[in-house]
Amino acid sequence: MDQIIIHVDMDAFYASVEVRDDPSLKGKPLIIGSLPSERGVVATCSYEARKFGVHSAMNIKEAYRLCPEGIYMHPDFKKYREASDRLHEIWNEYASASEYLSLDEAYLDVTRKAVTFEGAREIAMTIKRRTREELGLSCSVGVAYSKTAAKTASEEKKPDGYFEIRTPEDFRELVVDRDVGVLYTVGKKTAEKLNRYGINTVRDIRNNRDLVIKLLGKHGEWISDIALGIDDRKVTPYKPEDTKSISRELTFQEDVSDFDFLDDVIFLLSIMVDERAGRIGLFGKGVSLKMTYGDMKNITRSSIVQSCDTAQEIYESAKSLLNGVERRPVRLIGLGVYNLSKENWRQMDFDDYLFDREAISEERFRERLSGLGKKYGLDFEGNLEKLFSGETLYRTVEYMRKCVR
């Protein structure tokens, strides 16, 4: 049986949730992300803001220049996750497999449940109706024979749209004279590279397959295939245990030159990363440190370690990496663990037979946490769970930064 795939994409999800909860925001240019006075980017924005040229990932200063009358808000991820969880429950009722791309977007395999495109259309309309009635939100839905075509279809009639692409022929006819960027995985840099060689449209890709492959290798083969409507990828449900890495990062509102403060920050980031890894039952064998300096130069340092299955061990590895970098003003710092697996295996050494390594690590962690609380006048020990919220962590670190000026 040929595939029938639905792609569901919520319309301006974060902004729509805020409008739902505060109707006074309806019809206004709403920008979710950082505030104009802060460093940061746009997470998403309402369609009213998009009319001014504002879009996701745009620098917040540029967004304010384009739309000074906009309403700027920090995101509330707890609220968005709650809405997302409910959406997933609805979607899963109609799919034999669901592949979540983000909180607000997913591929649904409805081949067996829908049987026909008419059946898939009925499912899509039911999803749209329930999304509006049960959550007060709107979504755009595409139904197609492949994942690429379904994603293209959902973009076709946004917002609150519906579109079908039943065959590769239908897909080819729809996109043939569109910009190369319409194709899945053709980002800005790839498009620019193709444009330099006169490949501007999907038709150009089809007519220059050999050149595209020469320029882009395996990626070029993939792009050339989807330009012809060829995509047999299956909907693959996400499994937490398949996660390859976990990271957290923070952008400071002012560049930081105090590396003792950065040491304190990576300790908190270690707790965040360890909590996330523990929540999905994974253990890392590598630690990475990411930094962006004030001149926007990015560096990444990493190390394979024998064990980093506690926050204290992650921190100690990250501290060693931090001690090895150039000391100049820092704009952003991030910490991650990688080589994740469900196996918590480490080679025993002589010290393991003499000391309780786990107890020593826990003791060091508690001492560090207590010392951090005294240093900044904060109750970290009693409020760790609150820190797991990205917004709370950000506000806490900014408070700490101002304390050490």
Task: State the main characteristics.
five-stranded mixed beta sheet, alpha+beta, Alpha-Beta Plaits, 46% helix, DNA polymerase, domain 1, 3 domains, 12 strands, 405 residues, four-stranded antiparallel beta sheet, Dna Ligase, domain 1, 18 helices
Task: Provide a descriptive summary of the structure in words.
- The chain is an alpha+beta fold and 405 residues long.
- It folds into three domains: 1-166, Reverse transcriptase/Diguanylate cyclase domain (Alpha-Beta Plaits, 2-Layer Sandwich), CATH 3.30.70.270; 172-227, 5' to 3' exonuclease, C-terminal subdomain (DNA polymerase, domain 1, Orthogonal Bundle); 240-403, Dna Ligase, domain 1.
- It contains 18 helices and twelve strands.
- The protein has helices spanning 13-21, 47-50, 60-66, 77-92, 111-114, 117-135, 147-156, 168-175, 188-195, 202-207, 209-216, 218-227, 259-279, 311-323, 350-354, 357-376, 384-387, 390-403, and strands at residues 5-10, 30-33, 42-45, 71-73, 97-102, 105-109, 139-144, 162-165, 245-256, 284-293, 298-308, 330-338.
- The protein has a five-stranded mixed sheet with strand order 5-6-1-7-8.
- The longest helix is centred in the middle third of the chain and has 21 residues, at 259-279.
- Residues 345-356 have low confidence and may be disordered.
CATH architecture of the largest domain: 2-Layer Sandwich
CATH topology of the largest domain, by name, is: Alpha-Beta Plaits
Main beta sheet? 5 strands, mixed
Average pLDDT rating: 90
Helix-strand pattern = EHEEHHEHEEHHEHEHHHHHEHEEHEHHHH
- List segments where confidence is low: pLDDT < 50 over at least 5 consecutive residues: 345-356
Q: Give the total of beta strands.
A: 12
Gross geometry: globular
Indicate the radius of gyration in whole angstroms: 24 Å
Strand order of the largest sheet: 5-6-1-7-8
- State the name of the first-level CATH class of the largest domain: Alpha Beta
Ends apart, CA distance between termini: 65 Å
Domain count: the total is 3
How large is the count of helical segments?
18
